[in-house]
Amino acid sequence: MRFSTICPKRRGLTSNADARYGILPKRELPAIVVPIRHPCLPAASALARSSPMSTSASAQLSEFDLIRRFFTRPVRKAALGVGDDCALIEGRPGHHLAISTDMLVSGRHFFPDVSPVALGHKALAVNLSDLAAMGAEPRAFTLALALPEAEPDWLAGLAEGMLALADAHGCELIGGDTTRGPLTLSLTVFGDVPLRTALRRDAARPGDDIWISGTLGDARLALGDCRGEWLLPEPEFSQVRPRMEMPTPRVALGLALRGVAHAALDISDGLIGDLGHILARSQVGALVDVDALPRSAVLASQPETLQRECVLAGGDDYELCFTAPAGNRDAIAAISERLALPLSRVGTITPEPGLRLVDREGNPTVYAGASFDHFASP
Fold it and tell me: Which side of the chain, N or C, has fewer Cβ within a 10 Å radius?
């Protein structure tokens, strides 16, 4: 699931969003949840006290514990149920239908004065990224939309951003629902994947290489600037801002990795947490070289501690992390060249459980941060 924000007004930047969508001057923006815990955020206990549903037990449940405890059941008709980027059910002959849902809530996943064009793009992009992680070809999607008001100009921008990306990937909008309420978007995507070719989280094998597409950390770097945690000069901020606001789903890469990679997922909550899902589902461990993690020139110019925070736990990257046999390195290099997309080998899957981090010299590295989790205690 994707948990990030889109940048509010900065250095005179303005938005055409209507005040009825909750736009506030930057100094009045409410506290919002971001992809990594930060001292400025209110404590979970303070939030819990304001909720009539909260109990001491529920406040301690993580997002993934909540799903496992209350909503994970054995599947009898589906080929794959809860726990991966997509569920898989029987589709057209010789294929599975891959299905995934993501929700974006104003003030939780994006700033209230987000550009509607950017929001429309990102709402679909994060869903298409799930299909990419499974090696599925986009087919269709539905949109459920709650709005405080039906403002034509704002809706035109939202549709523009969303449908331009949909057209680029041949993904048709086939239905949904609308209602009045706090600004919320919930999309469900559908895609086709040939039988026995889906890139599942439970398929990593000891000895596999670990690969990352593109670069990591720019979205977190831009978010920190928007929140006032640090200030990036221009043009650096403008270079990293699109990675946060309008990510690129790696659909073509996911399709190319069929039959080449073993396991895959998209990096949405931060590498160490997301890779941990592959390790848990595959019952393996990993050795990762933190200095080999790909980063942009802008991020590489920042202090090393900030670089590591962004690449290891920043989240909102929507790059693919995948594992593949060492014998497939040439095939992966060919895919990288054909797609003009850097693919970096950053580690190895090990039979021993757990994630171990080392530097370029092989020395153990300790990182105390954590990837994003909606309900984890601070």
Answer: C
